[in-house]
Amino acid sequence: MAKLMAVTPIFAFLLVALSACTSENTVDTDSASQTPEQTQTLRIAAAANLSDVLPQIIDGYKTDENLAAQDIDVTYASSGKLYAQIKAGAPYDIFLSANQEFPAKLAAERVVDNDKNNESYTPFTYTQGQLVLYSVTKSLHGLEPAAVSDLLIKDANGKIAIANPELAPYGASAQAYLQSQNLYNTLNKQKRLIQAENIGQTFQYAHTGSVDYGFVAQSQIIAIKAKPEQFITLAPASYPAILQDGIVISDALIATDFTDYLRSKAGQHYFSQAGYLMVK
């Protein structure tokens, strides 16, 4: 009996130690299951023209992927401004530009780690925008796209807003369109061109009647359910194609997952409904 009593404390010690180890292992397992992807905020730098459609895509993504608790933070601005922020070290996970130039620059300048040989760091096209002439002060009823240049010439006092061509791809396309119609230099000399910072500000100028016309995005027109007499959708062949590229600029797996969704059939459906052209 004395011998049994001498051994018991040893067993008790071993049981306590075993219990502690088991407890530690349980905590580690639970901790490991809480991966950064489940709690990490996804930060997206998005071109201003996406402000109407991207919230819908994000809601659809969360629903379709069962990620209701996923935090997604979006900053909207001109593509050039966002590019500058990223160059300066802004902590975004995804950059969705309104053109192809800025994502290509990021890849070429190795702001992202191309040495990882990961296709996630390669620019991809996620949609194609359409350019529209919009007005709330002048009726555009019955006018065909080919009549836009004549309209702008005849309305000698009409003010026209375009986004900054140096920063905003929609502005660059609007500038190219006016140049192709031999109007850009004339309108500049007449001081009829009003330059906005981005496509969002361009739309506000036209929508509030601060200018008579604005070269805006078709998606903005769809979003407000504009009347047919308020806009003319320009022929896609009359200006450089507004191919919009994106790029993943972090190692977050959720970033790659979201960009895959953008290019999926479900994601492209949202773009099509919002006035963009679908891409394969």
From TrEMBL:
Range of residues in the leader sequence: 1-22
Matching entries from InterPro entries are given as:
ModA, ModA/WtpA
Looking up PROSITE patterns in the UniProt record yields: PROKAR_LIPOPROTEIN (PS51257)
Any Pfam family: SBP_bac_11
Keywords in alphabetical order, please: Metal-binding, Signal
Protein family membership? Belongs to the bacterial solute-binding protein ModA family.
Name of the protein in question = Molybdate ABC transporter substrate-binding protein
